[in-house]
Amino acid sequence: MSGSGKQAEPTVSQVLAGARHRFTEAGIESAAADARVLVAGLLGLSTTAIITHGGETVAHEQAVLIDKAIERRLAHEPVHRILGEREFYGLPLSLSAETLEPRPDTEILVDTMLPYLRTLAKTEGHIHILDLGTGTGAICLALLSECPEASGVGSDISADALRTAKSNAERNGLQDRFEAIQSSWFQNIHGSFHAIVSNPPYIASKVVHTLAPEVTKFDPAAALDGGTDGLDAYKAIAKDAARFMQPSGVIGLEIGYDQRNDVIDVFEAEGFKFLESVKDYGQNDRALVFALK
Question: What is the domain partition of the chain in residue ranges?
Fold first, then answer.
C-alpha cells in the first residue's frame, strides 16, 4: 500500500451498489430505481450507460457530491428534485420550489388530449391551448411539442412557476409558441381557446398531511390542496371556462382517483357535455374530457 493513505477512487458500480444498499436499509420502496436514476443523473450518464460504464472510476469530488445527494434522498427528498429536472413526455423539464414535479400519470392527460387537438387542427388550422396552473409547463409544452399547429398559454398564480415554465419552453425550443401569464384561474386570461387543460390541486385539505413526506415536504402546498372536498379548482374552472372556449373546444382535466363522478357533476351543472374518462397505469380514473353543449 502506498504511503499517501489516499483511498482508491470507487468505481461507478461500487457507488451505485452503495446507494442502493443505503436506500434499501432505509426502507425506500424504489431503492434500486432511485439509486440508478440519482447516480446516473449526477454522473451525466443515461440509466443504461451506467451499467456499461460500471468499471470506470468516480472522481473524489463527484463521489462527495453523490454522497450528499444520497443523504438528501434519505431525508425523503425525491430523486428528481435533487437532480433539479425530470423528463415528461420526452421533454427534459427543470423543476423549482413552487412547481409540482410532473408525474407519469399526467402523461395520460396528454395522450388523451392529442387526438382531439389533431382533429381540431385539421378543421381549424391553427389551435390555441390554455394550461391552467401550468407549473413547470409540462402539459402545455408536451402538447405543443406533439402538435406543431398549436400555440399555448400557461397560466399560474406563482411567479416562480412561470419563470420555470418559460425557461422550459426555451430549453425545448417552444418559446415562440408559448406564453406565460400570471393569473388565478381565468382572472388575467383573454381570448378564446380550442383546448383548456389543467392538472389542478385536487387533494382534500384534511388529507394533505397524510401524504408521503416526499410530497408534503417538497411539493408546493398550493399545487396540492383542493379545498375542503378537493373540488375547489374544478368548480372555479367550470364556472368560467365557457367564456374562454371556441365553440368546437374541449376541456381536459386530471382528477384524483375517486373524483370522477363528482367532477362530472360539477361540469354538467355548468352546462358542459361529458365526453370521456381515461384510466391511468394503476387503473384509476385519471383524465376527464368535456365539451360545450
Answer: 12-75, 97-292
pLDDT, tens only, 207-232: 888 888 877 787 787 777 788 888 99
C-alpha to C-alpha distance for 117 and 150, rounded to whole angstroms: 8
Cβ(187)–Cβ(132) below 8 Å: no
| CATH number belonging to the domain at 97-292, selected among 3.40.50.150, 3.20.20.100, 3.40.50.620, 1.20.140.10 | 3.40.50.150
169's grid cell: 419552453
Give residue 113's pLDDT band: very low, low, confident or very high (50, 70, 90): very high
Q: Write out the three cell numbers for 64.
A: 462527495
The model's pTM is: 0.89
Q: Identify the burial level of 197 via C-beta atoms within 10 angstroms of its C-beta, where 0-12 means exposed, 13-18 middle and 19 or more buried.
A: buried
Q: Hey, how many other C-beta atoms are within 10 angstroms of the C-beta on 196?
A: 25
Residues 6+ apart with CB under 8 A from 51: none
